[in-house]
Specification:
The structure is a single chain. With 332 residues, this protein is of the alpha/beta class. The protein is built from 9 helices and 14 strands. The structure holds S-adenosylmethionine. S-adenosylmethionine binds next to helix 2.
């Protein structure tokens, strides 16, 4: 007998891992530290309100933004191998966003006959709700959990009893963490993994700087809008009076650190008030606020730092053009 999926009980659960005031407090602390320091910086997680998450989805469709297409190409070719190697019952995705590429993994695990659960972990509740609703419609047998959390301060996986667990961290989001932040991320993840669990990591690779800069500074200006969205978040959440048009979007390749930096450059000298923090901050003309780093990786370096973090890389796949890597690792 078949069951009408529309009459099934809900299989979607949303958990807020952190108390309601956590994100408000964390935003205030990050902005206070970041805008009073030199150079001025903000962590990229604050891009992703509902509008920011939509803009990121638009970015993934831009002709210049190769990472999504490259990673999709690899997932199409390799998801069956991932399913065969892991036999995962639970797919956990860190920084899941729209969970669009995730379907390739879900389909492969379902075809392999092991898939039972999916858990998306993201800072953006809007993105989690939207993706969760779509996944429940598309996968009537799947338990879907959405976990609103911060991957840097509160990364908690579903319990090992739901294993084997495959933890996917796609999109090159690892590159948003600097070299001195990644060890803590690996350690937090490694601590929770049991024998038989696996990590599937998408990493953008070092390449021609022109290609990289174009990917972060597209002709239509979508990435510029995404970048300036963080100022709108500060205006709304902290009562700040940033004028996003008074800032110019910049994408800069730092050859020494092998990373792209997204910055907002003040077009003129200006004073910005942040009443919620009781702070006034001055920008010189041309002064830049760094809003994101995106580290690009090389095979040897990434394999070595994963080994130091307690992971053994078992597979390293790239797209045909060698722009992006997807690697499968096990707890060592
Ligand atoms: C570059 S997007 C990648 C989205 C998706 N995984 C993909 O591959 O297209 C980064 C994702 O990570 C989430 N994110 C960023 N910083 C985060 C943090 N500190 N904790 C949890 N999620 C975060 C964002 O909301 C966004 O969905």
């Amino acid at each position: 007998m078949t069951t009408d999926p529309h009459t099934r009980p809900a299989r979607f659960g949303l958990v807020r891992r952190l108390p309601v005031e956590h994100f408000a407090d964390a935003l205030r602390a990050d902005v206070l530290k970041g805008l009073t320091g030199r150079p001025k910086t903000l962590p990229p997680k604050w891009f992703y309100d509902a509008r920011g998450s939509e803009l990121f989805e638009e970015i993934t469709r831009l002709p210049e933004y190769y990472p999504t297409r490259a990673e999709t190409e690899i997932l199409r070719a390799r998801s069956a191998a991932v399913a065969g190697a892991t036999g995962a019952r639970t797919l956990v995705e860190i920084g899941s966003g729209s969970s669009r590429k995730t379907r390739l993994l879900l389909d492969a695990l379902a075809a392999h006959g092991t898939l039972e659960r999916y858990a998306g972990l993201d800072v953006s509740e809007d993105a989690l709700r939207e993706a969760g609703a779509e996944l429940c419609r598309e996968y009537p047998e799947l338990h879907v959990d959405a976990v609103v959390t911060d991957l840097q301060t509160d990364l908690v996986l579903p319990p090992a009893e739901h294993g084997p667990r495959l933890v996917a961290f796609l999109g090159g989001t690892l590159g948003n963490l600097d070299a001195d932040e990644r060890p803590a991320f690996y350690a937090g993840l490694r601590r929770q993994l049991a024998d038989g669990d696996a990590l599937l990591l998408g990493a953008d690779l070092v390449k021609d700087p022109e290609v990289l800069v174009r990917a972060y500074d597209d002709a239509q200006g979508v990435t510029a809008e995404f970048n300036k969205n963080v100022l709108r978040v500060l205006d709304r959440e902290l009562g700040a009076d940033f004028d996003p048009d008074a800032f110019e979007h910049r994408a800069v390749w730092d050859a020494a650190a092998e990373r792209i930096e997204m910055r907002l450059r003040a077009r003129t000298a200006q004073r910005v008030e942040l009443p919620a923090l009781n702070v006034v901050t001055d920008f010189d003309a041309g002064e830049e606020l760094r809003t994101e780093i995106s580290v690009k990786f090389r095979r040897d370096g990434l394999t070595a730092e994963l080994a130091r973090g307690g992971f053994a890389v078992r597979e390293w796949w790239t797209d045909r053009a060698g722009r992006f890597a997807l690697l499968l690792a096990e707890p060592a």
